[in-house]
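Please, structure for the following, as tokens.
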Amino acid sequence: MSPEDFASLLSKCLGWTPTADDVTRWELVAVPPGDVLLALDRLKVSPSGADGGSAGVILYRDLLPIADEAVAWAADIMRSRPPGALTSKGDRDIASALDYEIERGLRTRLRATTPGIGFLGEEEGSTGSAEVRWVLDPIDGTANFVRGIPLCAVSLGLLQGTEAVLGAIELPFLGSRYKAAKGVGAYVDGRPIRVRDTRLLSQAIVAIGDYAVGPGAEAKNHLRLALTRPTWLRRCNGFG
């Protein structure tokens, strides 16, 4: 990230533009490209000359523990509370009272720890900065959760503009947590993971996690159904 781009980010997120002296003093050009910077007002960033405040800069790797704590908190709630009242959101799509409770709780907690970062929740929308923001699905797989099926998760990501730069996913009933950040790598339960190094489809595994619901679902699912139907036919023939 160039000093000019970083100065623009500060202006959008924190409402003030640093001077050329600020940019020089922070020596942004010396930071490795993989460690893209975020300026957070939780670190009391202040313009030059204002109450002696110093610039606060944080790297994506420093946000991973915050995301970790957030999904762990939400997962504990999922394990200990019933879904509560259900609200239909459309074709095969529901939200539980616990979806709303978790989203409101994490919105409050993340606003307190990272007030310079906005927040977009699936159930109640966006607040704060749109340049850098947390994105949350409080219960990813509510239909499974309310039926006691363990394939559900808390899914939290961080977007810088339209780019996903960090994520943490906890599966509370399977005991696994996945996390990754740009320039840092990906991990499951603390162990590093990576995509397999192969160019052959025959040696790869491709997973499709879900099908579209609501208006236009048939068209959106056309390719997914085309990919999975031959597999199911082969399985059926194998048992026939």
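Residues 201-239 form one domain. The longest helix spans residues 60-80.
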